[in-house]
Automatic annotation (TrEMBL):
Name of the protein in question: Putative cystine transporter cystinosin
Gene3D superfamilies: 1.20.1280.290
Location of this chain's protein in the cell: Lysosome membrane
One of the record's GO molecular function terms: symporter activity
Pfam families in alphabetical order: PQ-loop
Keyword terms of this UniProt record: Lysosome, Membrane, Repeat, Symport, Transmembrane, Transmembrane helix, Transport
């Protein structure tokens, strides 16, 4: 056995960082040392956040035997979210990764329904790009499709993908994130990456169509070019500054990635405006696929439904109303969808404008 000393890098591990339990049930996780030592070691588990959600019915201190796994019992006593953290009787054993996030829900079938709704809106959003691509191909023309919208949309999804890829794959960024949020969960999952890259690719295909098909002298407006120029010039300058002086900042690359997330927020707020104005100016929605809007509205509505289901089932309404920016952007996007639906089916429903009219 190795002799323990303050300079040794022993570490306490947990078998999982996530547990989901129905209220009234019990579960748990294993804890273990990465290697053995010749001193008696005890571990102490405590509820750092959410003491009304979970209880730890086992003994306060648990013995850690060399090469063995020790079970920590967790009881779900109320709906919500909680964090269980651990420390040991020996101060030199690292416990920075010894934490478990616990989610406790009220109704099992609502949990299943939430998952189903999530998959439906994921599919709806994923295929929402193709009606416009098909319409462009069928007409061999993109007149009526705002080039500003396409350019902003492509930049938005590229920024979204850069943020997701950096957060998910970069050990440097993840280390910076954990230094700020020691028990936090990386806020990006694989499906976020897949959706973002797929959306960027589909939008890029639409952009290519804008170059190769008839467009009747449509072009990206000066305002949109300026906005896109500011976004990408800012990314380049910020990146160079981060490379040159980032060592003097606490979380340089995480801050750099947040720049792209803020760009995505700004673009989400503005990207639909040019298309709405173009429809108004032409008094027609010809060339603008309503299928895209119907699918986007379906996805947005179901996304909000899922947020409500989760908030109710986990008794966590702050996750819904506490994130004003996320909910606000969702409603703004759906409001534009409603506007496009009104333009297509009410205001300009009798329009017969065709792209090849003189």
């Amino acid at each position: 056995l190795l002799l323990a000393s303050p300079g040794s890098a022993w570490e306490l591990h947990v078998s999982t960082h996530h547990i989901t339990l129905p209220v009234g049930s019990e579960g748990g996780f294993f804890i273990y040392l990465d290697r053995a030592l010749n001193e008696s070691v005890w571990a102490h588990a405590s509820v750092r956040e959410g003491d009304r959600v979970v209880a730890l019915p086992g003994p306060s201190w648990l013995p850690l035997e060399a090469g063995e796994y020790t079970w920590v019992n967790v009881s779900a006593i109320g709906a919500g979210h909680a964090t269980v953290t651990l420390n040991t009787s020996l101060a030199f054993i690292r416990t920075s990764e010894a934490f478990v996030h616990v989610k406790a829900f009220n109704v099992a079938w609502l949990e299943t329904l939430s998952d189903v709704v999530g998959w439906i809106y994921f599919v709806a959003w994923s295929i929402s790009f193709y009606p416009q691509i098909y319409l462009n191909w069928k007409r061999k023309c993109v007149e009526g499709l705002s080039f500003d919208f396409v350019g902003l949309n492509l930049t938005g999804f590229l920024a979204y993908s850069f943020f997701n890829l950096g957060m998910f794959f970069s050990p440097v960024v993840q280390a910076e994130y954990r230094s700020l949020h020691p028990t936090g969960v990386i806020p990006v999952e694989l499906n976020d990456i897949v959706f973002g890259l797929h959306a960027a690719l589909a939008t890029f295909i639409t952009a290519v169509q804008c170059f190769i098909y008839e467009h009747r002298n449509q072009r990206v407006s000066l305002a949109a070019r300026l906005l896109l120029g500011v976004v990408w010039a800012g990314a380049a300058v910020f990146g160079l500054v981060t490379l040159a002086a980032g060592s003097h900042w606490s979380s340089p690359w995480l801050i750099y990635l947040y720049y792209f997330s803020y760009c995505k927020l700004v673009i989400t707020l503005t990207k639909y405006m040019p298309q709405a104005y173009l429809n108004f100016k032409r008094k027609s929605t010809s060339g603008w696929s309503i299928g895209n809007i119907l699918l986007d509205f379906t996805g947005g509505t179901l996304s909000f439904v899922q947020m409500c289901l989760i908030a109710y089932n986990y008794n966590d309404w702050t996750s819904l109303f506490g994130n004003v920016v996320k909910v606000g952007l969702s409603f703004i996007s759906m409001a534009f969808d409603v506007l496009f639906i009104v333009q297509h089916y009410v205001l300009y429903r009798h329009s017969t404008m065709e792209v090849l009219e003189n």
